[in-house]
Each structure stands twice: as C-alpha cells, then as structure tokens.
Amino acid sequence: MVRVGVHVSIAGSIDKAVDRAQALGCDTFQIFSRNPRGWKIKELTGHDTTGFIEKLKDSRIFPAVDHMPYLPNLAASADGVYTQSVAALIEELKRCDALHIPYLVTHLGSHRGFGKAEGFQRIIDAINHAFTEADNRVMLLLENTAGTKNSMGGTFEDIRWIMDHIERKERIGICFDTCHAFVAGYELRTEESLNAVMEHFDAVLGLDLLKLIHLNDATGDLDSRLDRHEHIGLGCIGEAGFRVILKDIRIRELPLILETPVDSRRGDKANIQKVRELAGQS
Predict the structure, then answer these.
(1) Among the options 67, 95, 122, 171, which is catalytic?
(2) pLDDT of the residue at 281
(3) Would the pTM count as exceeding 0.70?
(4) 47, 58, 70, 167: the active-site residue
(5) Which of 15, 66, 92, 227 is catalytic?
(6) Mean pLDDT in runs of 10 for the chain (282 residues)?
(7) What's the confidence (pLDDT) of residue 282?
(8) In the annotation, is 259 catalytic?
(9) Residue of 85, 135, 80 whose CA lies nearest to 108
(10) How many CB atoms lie within 10 A of CB 248?
(11) CB of 177 within 8 A of CB of 216?
(12) Half-sphere exposure (CA, 13 Å, Cβ side) for 39?
C-alpha cells in the first residue's frame, strides 16, 4: 500500500493542516510552517504546537513534512540574503523539532552566476552552522533540482559533494523529485531506464538516504530543464511512466508527496486518487 499525500495550507492555524490532510484522504502531508513568500516569521505558541502534535497523533498520518520557504537561498553570494537564508534554515529546524516533524526539505539554491564552487561552499557552511545552532534530531532532506541555469543539486554527484562535507551526516537525507529528475535528464518512464537511475542513485548517494519522494509529473520533456509541475499522468512522464515508477519497490514504499497544480482540470484529491489507481490500489 502506497503512502500518498499533498502539500496542505496552514491558513488559520497550523493544526488545521492536519484537518485538511485528513479531509483529502492523505496518508502523509507537507506544509510550510510559516509564510513561504516573506522573511518575517510568526513565532509558534505552545497552543500551536500542542494542537498540531495532538491532531497529528490522533490522525495516524505519518510522516508530516516541512518545506523551506521560497525566499532563502543557501547558495547565495550576497551576504544579506545568505545571512537571512541561514537564519531561516535554523528557525525551520527548530520549528520542526517543536512540532515533532521529522523531515525538513530544502532546495539547494542558486549560485547566481558566481560559480558552483562558491555555491557548494556556501551551502556546506550554511548546513553545518545550522546543525550547530539547531542541535536536534530533525533530518534535513536535500532535494534534487531541475538543473536550471545556476541552480545547485541538479545531479546526484552535486548532492554527494555537499553531503561529503557535512559534519553531522546522520542528519542528512534525500528528497527525490520526479519532475526535477526527469527534466534534468534522468529517464524514468521504462523499467530499464528507471532501474538504471535508481542503481546510479544507490552508487552515488545510497538508497538508505532516500527518505521521501516528491511525486510530480512534468510539463517539460526529458532534459528540458523546465521546472514546472503537472498533474499526475497529464505531463511528459505520463500515466505509463508513473505506473513504472509506482511499481518500483524502492519508491512505492516511501512517503509520496504531490506538489501538483490545483485547477479546473483536477484538484489534490483527484491526483491522490490517480496515484492510487496507477499503483494498483483502486
């Protein structure tokens, strides 16, 4: 049985995210613990954390996942943005701990033309410092990117380089995004090609570090570098591709989080149902 869910809103109060996840029939879910489009942070109260933890326990949904907001850039060359980004990472790690959320997903950012070497060092320094300041058991999941211009983490080798220089390696895992991987050049649509990708992942990173799947179809084709998500089965990966992906035991046993659109064609509940259908559960 697959564990599938979506990104849900915390509007009103953070505990309402659990209600929304339950209403959609989620087995797992993802949130932004704060406004994802601003730097200002609303502090969590004891009421916030208690309500969220109790509802989550009663729901039996697992795991709840937090995602870093949009503005932080851990590879930023500009000191002001970088300082704010590191502070945001520290705060999110602390918020996850307070909310009993085991995983925090982060994008690796963009070097903005200053080169991968500087970008790598900025990311490594940011994570090492954050782990010192937020000394807890929350695992930071590094997400593969679509390989767009100046972005960091578009290849397994790039992620490996970062991981090799992290001091608290036990606090690092991987979130694998199917859309990002596909448009970055990793072919996922046939059993043979998917097996090759997963074997490559295991050789470079290790499957034991793969903790979460962002299950998204792609508007762009293979190696297009177009970071645009599509409804499951309606994009270039397609239904046949997702049948292959959801058949693979290395993927289907992990939490599957959808970050698909909500529009007139389909909503979150329908995308969850489509995943279960393609996984052979309906």
Answers:
(1) 67
(2) 85
(3) yes
(4) 70
(5) 227
(6) 96 97 98 93 93 96 97 93 97 98 97 91 98 98 95 96 97 98 98 98 98 98 97 98 98 98 96 97 75
(7) 65
(8) yes
(9) 85
(10) 15
(11) yes
(12) 10
Annotated active-site residue in 20, 34, 107, 171: 107
Closest CA to 234 of 275, 195, 187: 275
129 catalytically annotated? no
Q: How many folded domains does the chain comprise?
A: 1
Catalytic residue (choose from 66, 158, 177, 217): 177
Domain at 28, CATH number: 3.20.20.150
Task: Give the structural domain span for 241.
Answer: 3-278
Q: Is 229 a catalytic residue?
A: yes
Is-catalytic flag, 177? yes
From the list 19, 187, 239, 259, the catalytic residue is 259
Kindly name the residue from 20, 122, 171, 180 that is annotated as catalytic: 180
Give catalytic status of residue 214 as yes or no.
yes
CB 86 within 8 A of CB 134: no
